Amino acid sequence: MATRRGRESERLLLLEGTHLFQELLRHGDQPREVIATEMWLQRHADLVDCCSADVPWRLVTEEVLAAALTTVTPDGVACLASLDALPSMPSRLDFLLVLDRIQDPGNLGTLLRTALAADVQGVWLGSGVDPLATKTLRSSAGALLQLPHRRYGPDEQTAIQQLEQALRQLSAQGLQVVATLPPDDHSALPVVPYWQLDWTAPTALLLGTEGAGLHPHLLACCSHAVTLPHSSRVESLNVAAAAVPLLLERRRATMTATSQ
């Protein structure tokens, strides 16, 4: 279950560590199986009590657990959860995050966690790193247990083609499809500082892969473009860092509009 092939074959998701286990239980789901050390069981009797009586538990040593997991220093527990427990994409989307070929699991994890904090309704991923890999799940603090996602691909060429078609459908449905670009970008689209966009409109926000940015075919689908003005001493911002003000600006704008 640590690999995509094993996960899809068994329809099970591997969650490593106490926090992901807590997140699964917090949202009303039950693990299919739990592997834990004796010390962990002694320290977390409250979590054990939250599990159904029919959940199988396997008691293992710390050495066995460390050999079975990808975490460098496991904290004593891992569990298997059903893939069917993951949230499904809503039929109507007013705020969507689209990620183009993100390569770093740490960046992707931070992006997903920020998206959840900003009330994003769903995330589309164009190929790139596996969003359900254990490292991504840990860095996102289990965001995909609450945040619907759809991964296009599996290869980059197919992902771009599928995303291009899907974005054009969104545009036809009335969403503004917004590219995130560097301050000095020479796109055919007029690029404005992010706070000048009407974030209260239904929006799909696009962020490109580290280094290369948005694929030209995806940029061609965009109706708007925003940038984060910053000092010329820095060539570009980390994609996960750039997402924070953009996503939270949308939340601020909609909260302000509602209060008025």
Low-confidence stretches: none
Task: State Rg.
Answer: 20 Å
Give me the CATH superfamily of the largest domain.
SPOUT methyltransferase, trefoil knot domain
What is the arithmetic mean of pLDDT? 92
Structural class by sheet pairing and helices = alpha/beta
Approximately how much helix is present in the residues? Answer: 25-40%
What does this structure look like?
It is a single chain. This protein is α/β, with parallel strands linked by helices and 260 residues long. Helix content is 37%, strand content 19%. The chain folds into two domains: 4-85, 60s Ribosomal Protein L30, Chain: A (2-Layer Sandwich); 95-259, 3-Layer(aba) Sandwich (Alpha/beta knot), CATH 3.40.1280. Helix 6 packs parallel to helix 10. The relative contact order is 0.14. The mean pLDDT is 92.
